[in-house]
Each structure stands twice: as C-alpha cells, then as structure tokens.
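Regression test attached.
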Amino acid sequence: MSEYTVRCLLCGQASVVSEKQADQLQIAKQGGAYICDLCQRRIRHECEQQTR
Ligand SMILES: [Zn+2]
C-alpha cells in the first residue's frame, strides 16, 4: 500500500491521502495545488461574506 502526502497551499499543513480519496490522490501524484478542508471552508466563508 502506497501513501501520498499533500501539503496545503495556504496553511502548509501536510496530510496523508488515502487511496479512497481519488481526487486528492490525483493531486498528490501530479504535485498539484492542494487546499485542506479547513482552508477550503475558510475561503468559502470569505466568499459568502464578500457577496453580501
Ligand atoms: Zn490549509
């Protein structure tokens, strides 16, 4: 079983991606941009505040 780690672009927190997380696994393999759940929620929250 192989493990991949991705690092969040915003907070720099590294997290291990399991094989079940297909989307994040793809990002980890390609070395693409990853944003953790916490930061995604934060971004979504800020966007909602800006639109109001
Ligand atoms: Zn983050």
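Expected vs. actual: identical. Residues 4-51 form one domain.
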